């Protein structure tokens, strides 16, 4: 009964997280972009029915800017996370099947990247490649693969010595056949979980790098830019410029993180019995 209760709870929280993500996506698609235009006669309006998140110093609707910014962060986070997962999959497979030299090289690179804080390395990479969305995506992709690589490598090492793989090898099946029929399908759930768990990190790092001026362009409605610009107006009492975008960013990140943790539990039934 406890197991069923935990599964029911996982299902409910997963549906709630997906509903939050779908709502943000649907609002960003269906929302008119006119709220991003300057309207000087509506400057600095506090939250109201017409403008639930208020307006900024240029009369732009903060709800529109926030939703468009979340959608932009979501796109950047998904692309960056997917790129990082691809790198992790390739590195993990290479370390497990290409011999001791490649294994040692991958282990050394993994330890090297894990020894340096993500944000520091991301800043350096983003600066070198010129910043912008391209810099963020490349930076996240090159800094978030090590932890997942270790998981993939361990999974591949375990699969290689599984009885069904040994049987396929004894029947003369090629390494490519074994990889495509046994190894890669087994890794897909791990890669999916890794993607969902990497995306919130990518979104937060994108917002942080953009906040300090080395990320997305100031002309884009990015959450980092919104929060950075709002700092200059908080002292004048315009609290809504930072509060609502910040809370929405945390809600987006939390929804992704919850979905990833729940999916990890579904993929590994042993974890479900621990609750």
From TrEMBL:
- Main localization (coarse): membrane
Query: What Pfam families does the database record attribute to this sequence?
Result: BPD_transp_1 (PF00528)
Q: Does the keyword Phosphoprotein apply?
A: no
What positions does the domain ABC transmembrane type-1 occupy? 70-260
What PROSITE patterns does UniProt report for this protein, alphabetically?
A: ABC_TM1
Write out the annotated subcellular location. Answer: Cell membrane
Topological category with respect to the lipid bilayer = Multi-pass membrane protein
Give TM regions: 72-96, 108-129, 191-217, 237-257
Recite the UniProt keywords alphabetically. Cell membrane, Membrane, Transmembrane, Transmembrane helix, Transport
Q: What family classification does the UniProt entry report for this protein?
A: Belongs to the binding-protein-dependent transport system permease family.
Under what name is this protein listed?
Answer: ABC transporter permease subunit
Species source reads Paenibacillus anseongense
């Amino acid at each position: 009964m406890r197991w069923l209760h935990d599964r029911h709870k996982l299902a409910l929280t997963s549906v709630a997280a997906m509903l939050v993500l779908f709502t943000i996506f649907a609002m960003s698609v269906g929302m008119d972009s006119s709220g991003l235009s300057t309207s000087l006669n509506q400057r600095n309006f506090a939250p109201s029915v017409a403008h639930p998140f208020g307006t900024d110093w240029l009369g732009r609707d903060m709800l529109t800017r926030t939703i468009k910014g979340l959608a932009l962060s979501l796109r950047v986070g998904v692309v960056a996370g997917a790129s990082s997962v691809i790198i992790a999959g390739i590195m993990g497979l290479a370390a497990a099947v290409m011999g001791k030299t490649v294994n040692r090289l991958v282990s050394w690179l993994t330890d090297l990247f894990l020894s340096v804080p993500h944000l520091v390395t991301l800043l350096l990479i983003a600066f070198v490649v010129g910043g912008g969305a391209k810099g963020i995506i490349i930076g996240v992709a090159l800094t978030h693969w090590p932890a997942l690589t270790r998981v993939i490598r361990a999974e591949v090492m375990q699969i290689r010595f599984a009885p069904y793989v040994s049987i396929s090898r004894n029947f003369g099946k090629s390494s490519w056949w074994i990889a495509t029929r046994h190894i890669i399908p087994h890794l897909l759930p791990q890669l999916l979980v890794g993607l969902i768990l990497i995306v919130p990190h990518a979104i937060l790092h994108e917002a942080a790098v953009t906040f300090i001026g080395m990320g997305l362009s100031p002309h884009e409605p990015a959450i980092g830019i919104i929060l950075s610009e709002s700092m200059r107006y908080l002292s004048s009492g315009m609290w809504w410029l930072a509060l609502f975008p910040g809370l929405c960013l945390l809600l987006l990140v939390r929804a992704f993180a919850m979905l990833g943790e729940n999916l990890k539990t579904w993929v590994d039934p042993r974890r479900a019995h621990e609750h």
